[in-house]
Amino acid sequence: MRVLAAATLGGVILFAASAGAQTTAATAPTFSKDIAPIFQAKCQECHQPNSIAPMSLVTFADARPWARSIKQRVAQRQMPPWHIDQSIGVQKFKNDMSLSQKQIDTIVAWVDAGAPQGDPKDLPPARKVNADNEWKGVQDGYGPPDLVIRSSEYKMPASGQDVWYRPMSEVPITEPRWVKMVEIRPTSLKARKGLHHSIAYQVLSPDNVQAVNTGTANGPAPAANVEDLVNRRPQLMEWAIGKGYDLFPPGTGKLIMPGEKLSWDQHLHASGEEVNIGSEIALWLYPKGQEPTKRSYLIGFTGLKRRGFVDIPPNSMAYTEGFTVLKENTLITNFQPHFHLRGKAMEVKAILPDGSTQIVSYVGKFNFNWMTNYIYADDAAPAFPKGTVIQVSAWYDNTKNNPSNPDPDQWVGYGDRTVDEMAHA
Amino acid sequence: MNVVYLSDAEYKEWQDKKKAQSTTTVADRQQQ
């Protein structure tokens, strides 16, 4: 009887354990039902065949081998590449690509359960595959650009020093037009490996001198003459590796005029293979009759006490800060932290004339490969009164703990090369 | 950062809109 009771008890325990395991397996997320929709919404823009990502995440066969890596990257919020701190400052964005905590938890639970496929019948309809090197603006639903201007290409050798390639391009318009959105991309997927930044400077016509940001961040500066203004070249757009587009708030934009040119400043870096590298700029224009009333200006708020002042000893952390006084009431519409391989964290803070302070934005896990442009939602973009000081604080990691650091034993100073440093927002 | 300059009247209009919003969009850091 005791043996029978023990066997029965054992059988009950075994049944209970089996039932529990079945419950866990039954409730674990599956790729088909739970993960594929997340990947479609937040990952496949880049993680598809022939794209900038190292692997596709379109099918279960694509994703399954990478399950553990996927769990690590999403749990640490390294992927998607949205690194702005979500507990400080502005929290609403037009281009937020981050995963929600629920989505992260689902992905983690999927991997922890062995990354099951589930029933393929539960898969959502397949997402449309992007064209190679597709514009981010098209991927995000803004339709095709109205105008694309392409620079000539430079044959970058497989190895060697950085190159700054500065060709010019015509702006093929016959009447004034206003730009509401602008995006730069390398001329090919291969070119992405070697193009670190690309700036399209606007060589103005004398009829468009108001386009010049006449140093307004430091106060309106009367120009000596029209030629002086024409020779100052405002930035139509600045692009750096990993950035998407600039989208100006409704009612604002940049004016381009017939006869103007683009002067490109392209920073090329050897990538281990010879590749032709150039840039293209896409312009989405306001329809005629819907021209905006205000201009958008691109200002680099410095993170340095003075230009050229960066001094980072080997195997150390470092800090710099810069201050810019707003000479006009200013609406800030985005945040794009910029520094190089030792960049670790950046904070933008406003010190108002009454002495109060506000943290505008903070990125604590800067990654050089992702110069993400965090575009504030229209109802969240902050404005500050004339006299406000914008403080940019920058932290650098020149130790071996920084996985992007090419040489922690190297002293690092200011410069344009990828191995040098700078800091601005 | 991209910026738009506001007249005094436009800035006041922006301030009035912010006050009307139910939540603050720019967080204040507590001074230690």
Features:
A: 425 residues; six-stranded mixed sheet; five-stranded antiparallel sheet; 24 strands; 27% strand; B: alpha+beta; flat; disordered C terminus
Describe the structure.
The complex is a heterodimer of chains A (425) and B (32). With 425 residues, chain A is an alpha+beta fold. Helix content of chain A is 17%, strand content 27%. Chain A is built from 7 helices and 24 strands. In chain A, strands 1, 5, 8, 9, 12 and 13 form a 6-stranded mixed sheet that branches. In chain A, strand 19 and strand 20 form a beta hairpin. The N terminus of chain A is likely disordered. Chain B has 32 residues and is of the alpha+beta class. In chain B, 41% of the residues lie in helices and 16% in strands. The termini of chain B are far apart. At the A-B interface, strand 13, strand 14, strand 17, strand 18 and strand 20 of A face strand 1 and helix 1 of B.
Question: What's a quick, concise take on this entry?
Answer:
The complex is a heterodimer of chains A (425) and B (32). Chain A is of the alpha+beta class. Chain A has seven helices and 24 strands.
Radius of gyration of chain A: 25 Å
Shape descriptor of chain A reads globular
Structural class designation of chain B:
alpha+beta
Proportion of strand residues of chain A: 25-35%
Q: What is the N-to-C order of secondary-structure elements of chain B (H for helix, E for strand)? A: EH
The major pleated sheet of chain B works out as: none
**Based on DSSP secondary structure assignment, what is the total number of beta strands of chain A?**
24
Strand-residue proportion of chain B: 15-25%
In whole angstroms, the N-to-C terminal distance of chain B is 28 Å
Oligomer: heterodimer
Biggest beta sheet summary of chain A: 6 strands, mixed
